[in-house]
Protein backbone atom coordinates (compact mmCIF):
# COMPACT_ATOMS: atom_id res chain seq x y z
CA UNK A 1 0.00 0.00 0.00
CA UNK A 2 1.22 3.44 -0.77
CA UNK A 3 0.99 6.01 1.97
CA UNK A 4 -1.00 8.98 0.87
CA UNK A 5 1.72 11.28 2.10
CA UNK A 6 3.94 10.19 -0.72
CA UNK A 7 1.72 11.94 -3.20
CA UNK A 8 3.93 14.95 -3.10
CA UNK A 9 3.64 18.35 -4.56
CA UNK A 10 6.42 20.85 -4.80
CA UNK A 11 6.51 23.47 -2.09
CA UNK A 12 6.52 26.50 -4.30
CA UNK A 13 5.03 25.36 -7.56
CA UNK A 14 2.06 27.25 -8.80
CA UNK A 15 1.72 25.78 -12.22
CA UNK A 16 -1.45 23.91 -13.09
CA UNK A 17 0.63 20.74 -12.92
CA UNK A 18 0.46 21.00 -9.18
CA UNK A 19 -2.97 19.46 -9.23
CA UNK A 20 -1.69 16.43 -11.08
CA UNK A 21 0.03 13.72 -9.08
CA UNK A 22 3.55 12.60 -9.90
CA UNK A 23 2.06 9.19 -10.72
CA UNK A 24 -0.06 10.61 -13.50
CA UNK A 25 2.79 12.75 -14.79
CA UNK A 26 5.20 9.85 -14.85
CA UNK A 27 2.73 7.68 -16.73
CA UNK A 28 2.33 10.43 -19.31
CA UNK A 29 6.09 10.96 -19.50
CA UNK A 30 6.32 7.23 -20.17
CA UNK A 31 4.50 7.70 -23.43
CA UNK A 32 7.09 10.25 -24.51
CA UNK A 33 5.26 13.33 -23.25
CA UNK A 34 8.05 15.84 -22.60
CA UNK A 35 5.73 18.45 -21.14
CA UNK A 36 4.51 15.98 -18.55
CA UNK A 37 8.12 15.18 -17.76
CA UNK A 38 8.87 18.88 -17.32
CA UNK A 39 5.95 19.18 -14.92
CA UNK A 40 7.16 16.10 -13.07
CA UNK A 41 10.57 17.68 -12.82
CA UNK A 42 9.10 20.88 -11.42
CA UNK A 43 7.18 18.93 -8.83
CA UNK A 44 9.95 16.59 -7.78
CA UNK A 45 13.32 18.23 -8.47
CA UNK A 46 13.57 20.05 -5.10
CA UNK A 47 12.86 16.75 -3.34
CA UNK A 48 15.31 14.75 -5.40
CA UNK A 49 18.03 17.38 -5.14
CA UNK A 50 17.33 17.83 -1.43
CA UNK A 51 17.82 14.14 -0.75
CA UNK A 52 20.94 13.87 -2.88
CA UNK A 53 22.40 16.96 -1.22
CA UNK A 54 21.74 15.44 2.16
CA UNK A 55 24.00 12.54 1.24
CA UNK A 56 26.63 14.12 -0.96
CA UNK A 57 26.76 17.55 0.68
CA UNK A 58 28.71 19.00 -2.25
CA UNK A 59 26.31 21.17 -4.30
CA UNK A 60 27.88 20.65 -7.73
CA UNK A 61 28.09 16.87 -7.38
CA UNK A 62 24.56 16.79 -6.04
CA UNK A 63 23.18 18.64 -9.03
CA UNK A 64 25.03 16.31 -11.33
CA UNK A 65 23.59 13.23 -9.66
CA UNK A 66 20.09 14.72 -9.50
CA UNK A 67 20.27 15.34 -13.22
CA UNK A 68 21.38 11.75 -13.79
CA UNK A 69 18.43 10.58 -11.75
CA UNK A 70 15.96 12.53 -13.86
CA UNK A 71 17.53 11.31 -17.06
CA UNK A 72 17.13 7.75 -15.82
CA UNK A 73 13.55 8.51 -14.79
CA UNK A 74 12.89 9.66 -18.34
CA UNK A 75 14.47 6.57 -19.85
CA UNK A 76 12.68 4.15 -17.54
CA UNK A 77 9.34 5.95 -17.47
CA UNK A 78 7.63 3.62 -19.97
CA UNK A 79 8.02 0.78 -17.49
CA UNK A 80 6.55 2.64 -14.55
CA UNK A 81 3.55 0.81 -13.11
CA UNK A 82 1.58 2.89 -10.58
CA UNK A 83 0.07 -0.31 -9.22
CA UNK A 84 3.49 -1.29 -7.89
CA UNK A 85 4.28 1.87 -6.01
CA UNK A 86 4.12 5.63 -6.06
CA UNK A 87 6.16 7.63 -8.53
CA UNK A 88 7.49 9.91 -5.81
CA UNK A 89 8.69 6.98 -3.71
CA UNK A 90 10.26 5.36 -6.72
CA UNK A 91 12.09 8.53 -7.70
CA UNK A 92 13.37 9.08 -4.18
CA UNK A 93 14.48 5.45 -4.02
CA UNK A 94 16.34 5.91 -7.28
CA UNK A 95 17.84 9.20 -6.13
CA UNK A 96 19.07 7.60 -2.94
CA UNK A 97 20.55 4.67 -4.82
CA UNK A 98 22.39 6.89 -7.24
CA UNK A 99 23.70 9.15 -4.52
CA UNK A 100 25.02 6.12 -2.67
CA UNK A 101 26.52 4.80 -5.92
CA UNK A 102 28.33 8.08 -6.32
CA UNK A 103 29.66 7.92 -2.79
CA UNK A 104 30.94 4.40 -3.30
CA UNK A 105 32.21 4.73 -6.85
CA UNK A 106 34.25 7.72 -5.86
CA UNK A 107 35.17 5.94 -2.63
CA UNK A 108 34.86 9.32 -1.11
CA UNK A 109 32.93 8.12 1.90
CA UNK A 110 36.09 8.19 3.92
CA UNK A 111 36.88 11.73 2.90
CA UNK A 112 33.46 13.10 3.39
CA UNK A 113 32.28 14.39 6.64
CA UNK A 114 29.65 11.80 7.27
CA UNK A 115 28.42 13.77 10.19
CA UNK A 116 27.28 16.43 7.76
CA UNK A 117 24.78 14.00 6.33
CA UNK A 118 24.01 12.55 9.70
CA UNK A 119 22.11 15.22 11.48
CA UNK A 120 19.75 14.31 14.22
CA UNK A 121 16.48 14.41 12.41
CA UNK A 122 14.50 14.16 15.60
CA UNK A 123 16.19 17.25 16.95
CA UNK A 124 15.80 19.40 13.86
CA UNK A 125 13.88 22.59 14.29
CA UNK A 126 11.45 22.97 11.41
CA UNK A 127 12.38 25.79 9.07
CA UNK A 128 9.43 28.23 9.06
CA UNK A 129 9.86 28.70 5.33
CA UNK A 130 9.17 25.03 4.69
CA UNK A 131 5.82 24.24 3.23
CA UNK A 132 3.16 22.72 5.43
CA UNK A 133 3.38 19.36 3.67
CA UNK A 134 7.10 19.13 4.15
CA UNK A 135 6.85 20.13 7.76
CA UNK A 136 4.15 17.58 8.47
CA UNK A 137 6.20 14.93 6.78
CA UNK A 138 9.26 15.99 8.66
CA UNK A 139 7.47 15.80 11.97
CA UNK A 140 5.97 12.46 11.12
CA UNK A 141 9.33 10.98 10.26
CA UNK A 142 10.89 12.55 13.32
CA UNK A 143 8.19 10.98 15.46
CA UNK A 144 8.63 7.61 13.82
CA UNK A 145 12.39 7.78 14.30
CA UNK A 146 11.83 8.92 17.85
CA UNK A 147 9.98 5.69 18.50
CA UNK A 148 13.10 3.68 17.80
CA UNK A 149 15.75 2.67 20.25
CA UNK A 150 18.71 5.04 20.04
CA UNK A 151 20.96 2.33 18.69
CA UNK A 152 18.44 1.43 15.98
CA UNK A 153 18.01 5.03 14.92
CA UNK A 154 21.73 5.60 14.85
CA UNK A 155 22.35 2.67 12.51
CA UNK A 156 19.45 3.59 10.23
CA UNK A 157 20.59 7.19 9.96
CA UNK A 158 24.19 6.23 9.30
CA UNK A 159 22.97 3.93 6.54
CA UNK A 160 20.36 6.15 4.92
CA UNK A 161 21.74 9.65 5.38
CA UNK A 162 25.38 8.69 5.72
CA UNK A 163 25.43 6.26 2.80
CA UNK A 164 27.34 3.63 4.74
CA UNK A 165 27.06 -0.14 4.31
CA UNK A 166 26.26 -2.28 7.31
CA UNK A 167 29.87 -3.36 7.40
CA UNK A 168 31.06 0.24 7.46
CA UNK A 169 28.59 1.05 10.21
CA UNK A 170 29.88 -1.86 12.29
CA UNK A 171 33.43 -0.59 11.86
CA UNK A 172 32.50 2.95 12.66
CA UNK A 173 30.58 2.02 15.80
CA UNK A 174 32.98 -0.75 16.69
CA UNK A 175 30.23 -3.30 17.19
CA UNK A 176 29.82 -6.74 15.58
CA UNK A 177 28.29 -6.81 12.09
CA UNK A 178 25.51 -9.05 13.35
CA UNK A 179 24.51 -6.43 15.86
CA UNK A 180 24.17 -3.79 13.16
CA UNK A 181 22.11 -6.14 11.02
CA UNK A 182 19.76 -6.84 13.90
CA UNK A 183 19.38 -3.15 14.73
CA UNK A 184 18.57 -2.29 11.15
CA UNK A 185 16.13 -5.15 10.69
CA UNK A 186 14.27 -4.40 13.91
CA UNK A 187 14.40 -0.66 13.42
CA UNK A 188 13.17 -0.81 9.84
CA UNK A 189 10.37 -3.13 10.91
CA UNK A 190 9.21 -0.60 13.48
CA UNK A 191 9.62 2.28 11.09
CA UNK A 192 7.58 0.51 8.47
CA UNK A 193 4.76 0.01 10.95
CA UNK A 194 4.99 3.52 12.37
CA UNK A 195 4.87 5.13 8.95
CA UNK A 196 1.83 3.14 7.98
CA UNK A 197 3.60 1.24 5.26
CA UNK A 198 2.19 -2.24 5.38
CA UNK A 199 2.25 -5.16 3.02
CA UNK B 1 13.48 -22.43 2.87
CA UNK B 2 14.21 -22.58 6.56
CA UNK B 3 12.96 -20.08 9.08
CA UNK B 4 16.51 -18.84 9.46
CA UNK B 5 16.90 -18.25 5.73
CA UNK B 6 13.68 -16.32 5.76
CA UNK B 7 14.87 -14.13 8.60
CA UNK B 8 18.14 -13.48 6.90
CA UNK B 9 16.40 -12.44 3.72
CA UNK B 10 14.13 -10.13 5.68
CA UNK B 11 17.19 -8.53 7.27
CA UNK B 12 18.74 -8.22 3.83
CA UNK B 13 15.59 -6.54 2.52
CA UNK B 14 15.52 -4.11 5.44
CA UNK B 15 19.14 -3.10 4.88
CA UNK B 16 18.64 -3.09 1.11
CA UNK B 17 15.96 -0.44 1.47
CA UNK B 18 18.61 1.78 3.04
CA UNK B 19 21.11 0.92 0.29
CA UNK B 20 23.36 -0.41 3.05
CA UNK B 21 24.35 -3.61 1.24
CA UNK B 22 27.58 -4.29 -0.57
CA UNK B 23 27.43 -5.38 -4.21
CA UNK B 24 27.36 -9.06 -3.45
CA UNK B 25 24.59 -8.80 -0.89
CA UNK B 26 22.60 -6.60 -3.23
CA UNK B 27 22.85 -9.22 -5.96
CA UNK B 28 21.63 -11.89 -3.56
CA UNK B 29 18.68 -9.74 -2.52
CA UNK B 30 17.69 -8.87 -6.10
CA UNK B 31 17.83 -12.52 -7.07
CA UNK B 32 15.78 -13.60 -4.07
CA UNK B 33 13.19 -10.88 -4.70
CA UNK B 34 12.78 -11.95 -8.28
CA UNK B 35 12.19 -15.54 -7.19
CA UNK B 36 10.01 -14.91 -4.16
CA UNK B 37 6.93 -12.69 -4.46
CA UNK B 38 6.34 -12.70 -0.72
CA UNK B 39 9.83 -11.42 -0.04
CA UNK B 40 9.42 -8.89 -2.82
CA UNK B 41 6.27 -7.49 -1.22
CA UNK B 42 7.98 -7.26 2.11
CA UNK B 43 11.03 -5.58 0.59
CA UNK B 44 8.81 -3.10 -1.22
CA UNK B 45 7.30 -2.08 2.11
CA UNK B 46 10.79 -1.47 3.50
CA UNK B 47 11.65 0.50 0.37
CA UNK B 48 8.63 2.71 0.84
CA UNK B 49 9.44 3.29 4.48
CA UNK B 50 12.92 4.34 3.40
CA UNK B 51 11.45 6.64 0.75
CA UNK B 52 9.55 8.41 3.51
CA UNK B 53 12.90 9.09 5.15
CA UNK B 54 13.97 10.53 1.83
CA UNK B 55 10.89 12.69 1.57
CA UNK B 56 11.77 14.29 4.89
CA UNK B 57 15.06 15.65 3.61
CA UNK B 58 14.98 19.40 3.23
CA UNK B 59 14.11 20.35 -0.36
CA UNK B 60 16.69 22.24 -2.35
CA UNK B 61 15.67 24.39 -5.31
CA UNK B 62 17.67 23.38 -8.37
CA UNK B 63 19.27 26.08 -10.55
CA UNK B 64 17.22 26.94 -13.66
CA UNK B 65 20.09 25.86 -15.92
CA UNK B 66 19.68 22.32 -14.67
CA UNK B 67 16.10 22.23 -15.92
CA UNK B 68 17.05 23.62 -19.33
CA UNK B 69 19.92 21.20 -19.75
CA UNK B 70 17.81 18.25 -18.70
CA UNK B 71 14.88 19.04 -20.97
CA UNK B 72 17.24 19.54 -23.92
CA UNK B 73 18.81 16.24 -23.07
CA UNK B 74 15.64 14.17 -22.82
CA UNK B 75 14.43 15.53 -26.14
CA UNK B 76 17.26 13.52 -27.64
CA UNK B 77 17.24 10.54 -25.34
CA UNK B 78 15.25 7.45 -26.29
CA UNK B 79 13.18 5.66 -23.67
CA UNK B 80 13.18 1.97 -22.88
CA UNK B 81 10.59 -0.23 -24.51
CA UNK B 82 7.47 -0.50 -22.38
CA UNK B 83 6.81 -4.17 -23.12
CA UNK B 84 8.37 -5.38 -19.89
CA UNK B 85 5.84 -5.62 -17.13
CA UNK B 86 8.60 -4.98 -14.65
CA UNK B 87 8.53 -1.92 -12.47
CA UNK B 88 11.35 0.48 -13.27
CA UNK B 89 13.40 -0.43 -10.27
CA UNK B 90 13.51 -4.09 -11.17
CA UNK B 91 15.27 -3.47 -14.45
CA UNK B 92 18.41 -3.75 -12.41
CA UNK B 93 17.57 -7.21 -11.30
CA UNK B 94 18.58 -9.33 -14.30
CA UNK B 95 21.96 -7.71 -14.38
CA UNK B 96 22.45 -7.89 -10.67
CA UNK B 97 21.75 -11.57 -10.61
CA UNK B 98 24.64 -12.05 -12.98
CA UNK B 99 27.00 -11.46 -10.14
CA UNK B 100 26.58 -14.77 -8.35
CA UNK B 101 26.89 -16.61 -11.64
CA UNK B 102 30.33 -15.28 -12.10
CA UNK B 103 31.44 -17.29 -9.15
CA UNK B 104 31.07 -20.24 -11.51
CA UNK B 105 33.78 -18.97 -13.80
CA UNK B 106 36.47 -21.63 -14.00
CA UNK B 107 39.23 -19.49 -12.61
CA UNK B 108 37.15 -17.90 -9.96
CA UNK B 109 37.93 -19.17 -6.53
CA UNK B 110 37.01 -16.16 -4.48
CA UNK B 111 33.68 -14.60 -3.93
CA UNK B 112 33.03 -11.87 -6.48
CA UNK B 113 34.74 -9.27 -4.43
CA UNK B 114 36.77 -6.54 -5.90
CA UNK B 115 40.18 -8.13 -5.93
CA UNK B 116 41.48 -5.16 -7.80
CA UNK B 117 41.68 -5.55 -11.50
CA UNK B 118 44.75 -3.42 -11.59
CA UNK B 119 46.41 -4.95 -8.59
CA UNK B 120 49.05 -6.62 -10.69
CA UNK B 121 49.50 -3.85 -13.17
CA UNK B 122 52.78 -2.08 -12.58
CA UNK B 123 52.60 1.57 -11.67
CA UNK B 124 54.24 2.27 -14.98
CA UNK B 125 51.12 1.19 -16.79
CA UNK B 126 49.59 4.54 -16.14
CA UNK B 127 52.81 6.51 -15.83
CA UNK B 128 54.45 8.28 -18.72
CA UNK B 129 57.38 5.86 -18.84
CA UNK B 130 55.87 2.42 -19.19
CA UNK B 131 58.60 -0.07 -19.93
CA UNK B 132 58.09 -2.53 -22.76
CA UNK B 133 57.17 -6.02 -21.60
CA UNK B 134 60.10 -8.40 -21.17
CA UNK B 135 60.65 -10.60 -24.20
CA UNK B 136 59.79 -13.92 -22.65
CA UNK B 137 57.16 -14.84 -25.21
CA UNK B 138 54.68 -13.26 -27.55
CA UNK B 139 53.14 -10.26 -25.88
CA UNK B 140 49.69 -11.37 -26.84
CA UNK B 141 50.17 -14.70 -25.10
CA UNK B 142 51.24 -13.07 -21.90
CA UNK B 143 48.52 -10.51 -22.11
CA UNK B 144 45.90 -13.16 -22.60
CA UNK B 145 47.20 -15.13 -19.65
CA UNK B 146 47.13 -12.06 -17.52
CA UNK B 147 43.67 -11.17 -18.64
CA UNK B 148 42.54 -14.69 -18.04
CA UNK B 149 43.66 -14.47 -14.46
CA UNK B 150 41.96 -11.18 -14.07
CA UNK B 151 38.65 -12.67 -15.01
CA UNK B 152 38.47 -13.64 -11.40
CA UNK B 153 38.63 -10.04 -10.38
CA UNK B 154 35.40 -8.94 -11.95
CA UNK B 155 32.85 -7.32 -9.82
CA UNK B 156 29.47 -6.80 -11.36
CA UNK B 157 28.81 -3.48 -9.79
CA UNK B 158 25.68 -2.87 -11.74
CA UNK B 159 24.55 0.03 -9.70
CA UNK B 160 27.91 1.69 -9.92
CA UNK B 161 27.96 0.99 -13.61
CA UNK B 162 24.61 2.56 -14.14
CA UNK B 163 25.66 5.59 -12.17
CA UNK B 164 28.84 5.92 -14.13
CA UNK B 165 26.96 5.44 -17.33
CA UNK B 166 24.43 8.12 -16.76
CA UNK B 167 27.15 10.17 -15.14
CA UNK B 168 28.99 9.96 -18.40
CA UNK B 169 26.11 11.54 -20.17
CA UNK B 170 25.89 14.35 -17.70
CA UNK B 171 29.62 14.88 -17.41
CA UNK B 172 29.95 15.02 -21.14
CA UNK B 173 28.37 18.42 -21.09
CA UNK B 174 27.70 19.73 -24.56
CA UNK B 175 23.98 19.58 -24.12
CA UNK B 176 23.53 22.09 -26.88
CA UNK B 177 25.06 19.94 -29.59
CA UNK B 178 22.89 17.96 -31.93
CA UNK B 179 25.65 15.79 -33.37
CA UNK B 180 26.14 12.27 -32.11
CA UNK B 181 28.62 12.90 -29.36
CA UNK B 182 30.16 9.85 -27.67
CA UNK B 183 27.92 10.58 -24.70
CA UNK B 184 24.90 10.51 -26.95
CA UNK B 185 25.97 7.22 -28.45
CA UNK B 186 26.33 5.85 -24.94
CA UNK B 187 22.81 6.99 -24.16
CA UNK B 188 21.51 5.34 -27.31
CA UNK B 189 23.27 2.08 -26.60
CA UNK B 190 22.13 2.02 -23.02
CA UNK B 191 18.55 2.70 -24.06
CA UNK B 192 18.55 -0.28 -26.43
CA UNK B 193 16.17 -3.04 -25.30
CA UNK B 194 19.04 -5.52 -25.35
CA UNK B 195 21.61 -3.22 -23.74
CA UNK B 196 24.03 -5.01 -21.45
CA UNK B 197 26.77 -3.74 -19.23
CA UNK B 198 29.63 -5.08 -17.23
CA UNK B 199 31.82 -3.24 -14.75
CA UNK B 200 35.08 -3.78 -13.02
CA UNK B 201 36.36 -1.79 -10.13
CA UNK B 202 39.91 -0.60 -10.48
CA UNK B 203 42.55 -0.47 -7.83
CA UNK B 204 42.05 3.18 -7.03
CA UNK B 205 38.32 2.79 -6.60
CA UNK B 206 37.52 4.04 -10.07
CA UNK B 207 35.17 2.02 -12.21
CA UNK B 208 35.44 0.84 -15.80
CA UNK B 209 32.24 -0.11 -17.54
CA UNK B 210 31.48 -1.61 -20.90
CA UNK B 211 27.99 -1.13 -22.24
CA UNK B 212 26.93 -2.77 -25.46
CA UNK B 213 24.00 -3.74 -27.63
CA UNK B 214 24.09 -6.72 -29.96
CA UNK B 215 21.23 -5.23 -31.91
CA UNK B 216 23.05 -1.94 -32.48
CA UNK B 217 26.31 -3.83 -32.92
CA UNK B 218 28.38 -1.37 -30.97
CA UNK B 219 29.92 -0.91 -27.55
CA UNK B 220 31.14 1.90 -25.38
CA UNK B 221 33.84 1.77 -22.76
CA UNK B 222 33.53 4.23 -19.88
CA UNK B 223 36.27 4.78 -17.37
CA UNK B 224 36.27 7.31 -14.62
CA UNK B 225 39.37 9.10 -13.38
CA UNK B 226 41.72 7.79 -16.04
CA UNK B 227 45.03 9.67 -15.78
CA UNK B 228 46.15 11.76 -18.74
CA UNK B 229 49.17 10.38 -20.59
CA UNK B 230 52.20 12.15 -22.03
CA UNK B 231 52.43 12.95 -25.74
CA UNK B 232 54.48 9.84 -26.40
CA UNK B 233 51.83 7.46 -25.15
CA UNK B 234 48.24 6.50 -25.82
CA UNK B 235 45.56 4.25 -24.40
CA UNK B 236 44.68 1.35 -26.67
CA UNK B 237 41.63 -0.87 -26.41
CA UNK B 238 41.73 -4.57 -27.28
CA UNK B 239 39.24 -7.29 -28.01
CA UNK B 240 40.58 -10.53 -26.54
CA UNK B 241 39.20 -13.90 -27.59
CA UNK B 242 40.50 -17.45 -27.67
CA UNK B 243 41.47 -16.78 -31.27
CA UNK B 244 43.68 -13.85 -30.40
CA UNK B 245 43.82 -10.18 -29.61
CA UNK B 246 42.73 -7.47 -31.99
CA UNK B 247 43.11 -3.73 -31.61
CA UNK B 248 39.96 -1.76 -30.90
CA UNK B 249 41.12 1.80 -31.21
CA UNK B 250 43.27 4.42 -29.51
CA UNK B 251 41.98 7.01 -27.09
CA UNK B 252 43.04 9.66 -24.62
CA UNK B 253 41.78 10.34 -21.15
CA UNK B 254 38.63 12.43 -21.12
CA UNK B 255 38.73 15.98 -19.91
CA UNK B 256 36.05 15.83 -17.24
CA UNK B 257 37.31 12.87 -15.26
CA UNK B 258 35.33 10.54 -17.47
CA UNK B 259 36.68 8.79 -20.55
CA UNK B 260 34.38 7.40 -23.22
CA UNK B 261 35.72 5.17 -25.97
CA UNK B 262 33.37 3.79 -28.61
CA UNK B 263 34.02 0.39 -30.13
CA UNK B 264 32.45 -0.99 -33.29
CA UNK B 265 30.59 -4.21 -32.77
CA UNK B 266 29.37 -6.02 -29.69
CA UNK B 267 31.91 -7.99 -27.65
CA UNK B 268 30.20 -11.38 -28.19
CA UNK B 269 31.77 -12.87 -25.09
CA UNK B 270 35.22 -11.41 -25.64
CA UNK B 271 37.21 -9.65 -22.97
CA UNK B 272 37.73 -5.96 -23.59
CA UNK B 273 41.07 -4.72 -22.35
CA UNK B 274 43.06 -1.52 -22.23
CA UNK B 275 46.82 -1.00 -22.20
CA UNK B 276 49.13 1.98 -22.38
CA UNK B 277 51.00 1.91 -25.70
CA UNK B 278 53.53 4.13 -27.44
CA UNK B 279 51.96 7.00 -29.38
CA UNK B 280 50.41 5.67 -32.58
CA UNK B 281 49.43 2.41 -30.95
CA UNK B 282 50.65 -1.16 -31.29
CA UNK B 283 49.55 -4.23 -33.22
CA UNK B 284 49.55 -6.28 -30.04
CA UNK B 285 49.65 -5.19 -26.39
CA UNK B 286 53.15 -4.43 -25.16
CA UNK B 287 52.37 -3.61 -21.54
CA UNK B 288 50.30 -5.06 -18.76
CA UNK B 289 46.62 -4.30 -19.02
CA UNK B 290 45.24 -1.65 -16.76
CA UNK B 291 41.65 -2.70 -17.46
CA UNK B 292 40.08 -5.99 -18.45
CA UNK B 293 36.34 -6.45 -18.72
CA UNK B 294 35.14 -9.98 -19.49
CA UNK B 295 31.73 -10.14 -21.14
CA UNK B 296 31.23 -13.89 -21.36
Can you give a write-up of this model?
Helices cover 62% and strands 0% of the residues of chain A. Chain A contains nine helices and no strands. About 32% of the residues of chain B have low confidence. Chain B is globular and about 60 Å long. In chain B, α8 runs antiparallel to α9. At the A-B interface, α2, α3, α4, α6 and α7 of A face α1, α3, α4 and α8 of B.
Briefly, what is this?
By secondary structure, chain A is mostly helical. Chain A has helices at 22-29, 34-56, 59-76, 87-105, 114-117, 132-146, 150-160, 166-173, 177-194.
Topology overview:
The complex is a heterodimer of chains A (199) and B (296).
Chain A (H helix, E strand, L loop, with lengths): L21 H8 L4 H23 L2 H18 L10 H19 L8 H4 L14 H15 L3 H11 L5 H8 L3 H18 L5
Helix pairs in contact in A: 1-2, 2-3, 2-4, 3-4, 7-9, 8-9
Chain B lengths: L2 H15 L5 H13 L1 H19 L8 H11 L18 H4 L1 H4 L37 H12 L7 H14 L10 H10 L4 E6 L5 E7 L4 E7 L8 E9 L2 E8 L6 E7 L6 E8 L12 E4 L2
Antiparallel strand pairs in B: 1-2, 2-3, 3-6, 4-5, 4-7, 7-8
Helix pairs in contact in B: 1-2, 1-3, 2-3, 8-9
State the main characteristics.
heterodimer; A: 199 residues; Rna Polymerase Sigma Factor, Chain: A; 2 domains; globular; B: 296 residues; alpha+beta; four-stranded antiparallel beta sheet; 34% helix
Low-pLDDT segments of chain B: 84-179
Into which percentage range does the β-strand content of chain B fall?
15-25%
As laid out across the biggest beta sheet of chain B, the strand order is 1-2-3-6
Report the C-alpha radius of gyration of chain A, rounded: 17 Å
Overall body shape of chain B: globular
Q: With helices defined by DSSP (H or I, 4 residues minimum), what is the helix count of chain A?
A: 9
The proportion of residues forming helix of chain A, as a percent range, comes to 55-70%
**What does the oligomeric state look like here?**
heterodimer
